[in-house]
Amino acid sequence: IHWLNAIRCELEQRIEKSINAVVTCSALKDSYRKILSISSEVQFIYLKIEENNARERLFQRPDHFFNQTLIWSQFRDLEEPLNTFTLKGMLPSETLVHEIISHYGLY
Q1: Please, which residues bridge with residue 85 across strands?
Q2: CA 37, CA 89: separation in Å to the nearest integer?
Q3: Alpha helices in the chain (DSSP H)
Q4: Four-point Cα dihedral 92, 48, 22, 81, nearest 10
Q5: 67, 59 in Cβ contact below 8 A?
Q6: For the chain: N or C, fewer Cβ within 10 A?
Q7: Contact at 8 Å (CB) between 24 and 55?
Q8: Model confidence over 15-58: pLDDT tens digits?
Q9: 3-state secondary structure of 45
Q10: Distance CA 101, CA 13 (A)
Q11: For residues 68 and 48, what is the distance between their CA atoms, to the nearest angstrom?
């Protein structure tokens, strides 16, 4: 999977140079997350959201690149991560950022 390997390569480069980064993607499957788990420095955050909420959000963004008809397949393919910091995906962005900073002690 080209996009996944590109993300892995970017992570490797940043870790090698000690550059912090936040990378977002829909690593829906455990096998995808294993590919990205190149170091203990790589941490996953699961923003859990219900399918109907995801659909509503996408409908509010008519120019978004994601094809709305594919939402069901994303939820079908999702393998919910275990032992991962999980937040409610419907929380406001500011709250999510605060919770992440607090959880990881990134003050």
Answers
A1: 45
A2: 22
A3: 2-16, 30-36, 51-59, 71-77, 93-104
A4: 160
A5: no
A6: C
A7: no
A8: 999 998 888 888 999 999 999 999 999 999 999 999 989 888 77
A9: strand
A10: 23
A11: 18
- For 24, the token pair is 């977002």
* Burial status of residue 4 (CB atoms within 10 A of its CB: 0-12, 13-18, 19 or more): middle
The residue with tokens 């079908």 is 76
Task: Please give the structure tokens belonging to residue 107.
Answer: 């003050």
Q: Give 2-18 pLDDT, tens digit per residue.
A: 999 999 999 999 999 99
The percent of residues in the chain predicted with pLDDT above 90, rounded, is: 64
Dihedral angle of Cα 16, 84, 36, 33, to the nearest 10 degrees: 180
